[in-house]
User: Fold this.
Amino acid sequence: MDLGLVEWAELVLGQLDQTPAPHHRRLMKALDAMSRGEMDRLMVLMPPGSAKSTYVSVLFPAWYLARHPRTALIMACHTDSLASHFGRRTRALVQEHSATLNYRLATDERAASCWRTSQGGEYFGVGIRGPIAGRRADLAIIDDPIKSWAEADSPMSREHAWEWYRTDLLPRLKPRGRVVLVMTRWHQDDLGGRILEMEPGWTVLRLPALAVLPDPMGRAEGEALWPAWEDAAALARKRAAMGERAFAALFQQDPRPPSGGLFIPERVAVCDMAPGDTVAVRAWDLASALPAPGKDPDWTVGLRLDRDAEQRFVVTDIQRLRGTPGEVEAAIRATAERDGPAVLISLPQDPGQAGQAQAAYLTRRLAGFTVRCSPETGAKLTRAGPVAAQIEGRNVSLVRAPWNRAFLEELRDFPHGRKDDQVDALSRAFMTLVSPAVPARRLHVPLLSR
Assistant:
């Protein structure tokens, strides 16, 4: 087949008096790069009504099977019926344009979601709850793995989608197999969010309904994605009716937790340097689970909080890792050596004999430093309340560093977010620092390079 993907789309859509919009051409550029082997994982995040499925799940498979004749392709959607819908449309394109594509359907193929081509290609459509055992794929396309808000907000449904992807789909890929995920974002922990958190190496094309800079298409900020279909004014009306959370997720591809968070991160100032004369605490929150493939364990976090002579608080450093007990112990010791002996170390002590033994062991390993171990008491929200009040009063700042974004996002999401390890460390650091046992005198604590 001599036609490129854009020419193929123009040919098919021209018969319907349609033409690809600029965002469709940007999408096809990414799909063409995948076809050439420039990437093997592509995530496409676009709003409802942007015709992303027409290009990714109908036009692209028919064209890809022409460019890669012996491809085994799996098309997966939130339901079998949607997979059959895409399979039926792709199959019809192959029948109508077989001369252009240089292949046809095998003569005995009748099913909408399971058919073969005359050149040895295979197409199989399935819902994410459907079985794919016995199938193999050179290319897997996942289109809209979530069908509703209720499903997106269900931890069980999100976990089911992740486990299906991890244990059902990925093992079906052949060596050097490729995956395209095209979806609208619904939740921070939806399949796209979980993949971004857990899997490196994905190319992400995010095209919100209203441009956010920097925009992959070079749009001005706030410019509509497809004004001929839905302009900025229409999107503004929809935004007002839907509410900010739903619009941010579905149309801006920026899912946010439910409203009512404890912290106001916008009131945290970011400064270039920390004060030189401070009292400082390094508080640790220790993860209880070991990292493992396909899992999303908690983080071990060591947060340093400084208090200056004017009783202002500055988060000057955050160490964050997932590791074995030995790796965590080494990180705590190395961080203490960088901080110096003037920085108090605050460690949590789990209840019971095992927690006491761990605290005693870490204290011995930190000989030469001041260590304070104490159990966590009260609910997380209760523990976080005092430092949240200081943030609300604009009395907490950060030293500018790469960890700022993840920290502020966790504050914004708490208590609805997936992780709260940094919040727990911040709460411990603050309560330790304001304890009467911590001297109020000024100490000169140099901030070493990190």
Remarks:
- The two ends are 55 Å apart (CA to CA).
- Confidence is low (pLDDT under 50) at residues 441-450.
